[in-house]
Amino acid sequence: MEKKNILTGIRPTGRLHLGHYFGATRNWVKLQDEYNTYIEIADVQALTDNFDNPEKVRKSVRDLAIDLLAVGIDPEKSTLFIQSMIPEIAELTIFYSNLVTIARLERNPTVKTEIQQKKELFGDKGEGITYGFLGYPVSQAADITAFDGELVPVGEDQLPLIEQCREIVRKFNNIYGETLKEPDAYLSENKRIKGLDGNDKMGKSLGNAIYLCDDEETIRKKIMGAVTDPNKIKKDDPANPDVCMVYYYHKLIKNDNIETVCKECKKGARGCVQCKKELIEKMQEFLRPVSERIKYYEDNPELVDKILIEGTSRAKKTAEETMKKVRKAINIDYFEEK
Ligand code: TRP
């Protein structure tokens, strides 16, 4: 049986943290064995928000590739590529943009939330919403369909974007004839990872993340500052592990001693400092193989470049095939034999 195509993407705007790892990339590493996997470094999409900071995007493309390779994305199994180097994606975006109303884009819940966040952040100082930003769901539909993506592994916040893509595909097929595949979202089991501060989401802008590339001393400092049960004042007070981030991370990285941690915490037989020290060691151990691989790729930048160039060239071939079909469907395949 032919393998199905999976397409997923990630914006190059910084390094990967544990939220990305447990919420997304760990899952991609498993999926690459079963599916034809395309992983897009979405620099064009990153520029919709960072058009005035191209240096950040440029640097993040390589950093992101290194982090992805370090967690186990295997270039033999997955096609890792750079979005802006596939002009067919931009071409598709133009044709799809006729199939979406502005009102529909403004109603998209993900876009709506992001517009709200921008307003809160910039207020009247903001320049307003750009055409490119409002249209990024259209461009994301192009990302997916260019590679015949049937399954799209994403977090929960991305579901409205997949729905938007499905609508575009249906409309396209209705008008121009059955050409594109309607994708399904593929949700990962850990949808959202909490931050060290107890915030519901680990995020770069929230400053509550452990990065895969953090060195051991940074990991130590961050964990020492993690939020524990605020009602526990003294070392031998009993506490509630369910509100403690240290316990949360013990669980996340599957400390095999987890039951003891829980029991002792509840009884007041375990101080937070001891508990944090244990987590620090386990976390450093957990991240050591990843950081060793990060170092390996950082020391071999020409290897990373080669992987990206080869992946992008493979991806381009697939997108070219799609573009041919699309041109034919829209009847703009001029000078081709009919
Ligand atoms: N919008 C996604 C994010 O912010 C990144 C992305 C770009 C993507 N293109 C994609 C995800 C295609 C899935 C499919 O995380």
Describe this structure in words.
This protein is mostly helical. The chain has 2 domains: 5-193 and 301-330, HUPs (Rossmann fold); 216-295, Tyrosyl-Transfer RNA Synthetase. Helix content is 56%, strand content 7%. α9 (159-176) links the parallel β4 and β5. The protein binds tryptophan. Tryptophan is lined by residues 7-11, 40, 42, 45, 140, 143-144, 152, 154, 158.
Describe what is shown at a glance.
With 338 residues, the chain is mainly alpha-helical.
Content of β-strand: 5-15%
CATH class of the largest domain: Alpha Beta
Structure summary, number of beta strands: 5
Q: Main beta sheet, described?
A: 3 strands, parallel
Second rung of CATH, namely the architecture of the largest domain: 3-Layer(aba) Sandwich
Number of helices: 14
Structural class: mainly alpha
